[in-house]
Write a structure and sequence with these properties.
transferase; transit peptide; 18 helices; globular; UbiA_sf; Tetracycline Repressor, domain 2; single chain
Length: 401
Amino acid sequence: MDSLIVGSFTRSNPHNFPAALHIPSLRNSIQGSRCKEWSPLEGICSVKYQRYLVEGHTVTDQKKSILCPTNCRKRLVVACGGQPLESEPNVYDSKNLWNSVTSFLDAFYRFSRPHTVIGTTLSIVSVSLLAVQKLSDLSPVFFTGMLEAIIAALFMNIYIVGLNQISDIEIDKVNKPYLPLASGEYSTATGIFIVTSFAILSFWLWSVVGSWPLFWALSVSFVLGTAYSINLPMLRWKRSAVVAAMCILVVRAIIVQIAFFLHMQTHVFGRPAAFSRPVIFATAFMSFFSVVIALFKDIPDMEGDRIFGIRSFTVRLGQKRVFWICIALLQMAYAVAIIVGASSSFFWSKLITVVGHGILATMLWRNAKSTDLSSKVEITSFYMFIWKLFYAEYLLIPLVR
């Protein structure tokens, strides 16, 4: 009977270990064969929802580790069954390795701020398509050049958002406690290693590609992203609401549209620098959108910003006023987009851009009216909705002709 219990523990359900130890006969057998230093084991087994790892003489959970001393380094054996508890160590090793990998990937996913990663990727794809003049331009050279720009930009994106988290650990413990540095999943040294590595990788990739527009895109992003976050004299520009908004506007609205378009236009296609009507529209529209993102991102973070002296527009003007300023700015941008679309000489472009922007404007208004501004959860959800509108715009921009 007891040997069957041990077999069940080692093969089918290892987490039954705590329950098994509460069977009197089995527990007494283990107590009879263990060393004196093993007595804390009972205390661990009484705690609910803990993970156990039995590797010969070691029992660990997330907070405790009890190790049998050297002279007793033998496998736990159930006296009446004679079966070792470590009968299949490879199963546990594989499971622990998989858990470690998934935990690391989950933490890195949150560290990279995925909504910014998606936004960067979509914006570069969209702007790259603006450089396409004929169907034959969609060649392997086009896709290679676009992929080089995306990877280099994503490396720089992770540097920027990571540096911001390193500089804001105490603030994020209030505003975003789920981030790896704020929660303690990553140490500060780990964060510094990650951001340094990705900044180096970004510029290394540029050195391989050799595109000067790409170099300027990465360099300006690096300088502004560093000045925005790092806490040094004359820097940490995020403390000024106006300067912080200008940093985001320059990177998201100007650098992304102009520099990456020139990368495709001059470096990939070898054509002279010339800004078309869609490129000018994209830059102007995204200027509005970048200001909205710069303003809106501080609305859910008002509590932490106020505590740590960040004088954002939300802290100064209040959540409700800034919220409706953002809505008004976006509605103005959509009105301009509808006018630009209606003036197109291509019927298909006119139809798609007018109808598409009309739908987005309607969705924005309906969601804004139904958002409870006293709920941080709803405000944060609406902020993510703003990013979805941002993604949707980059799907419409290549169709503006």
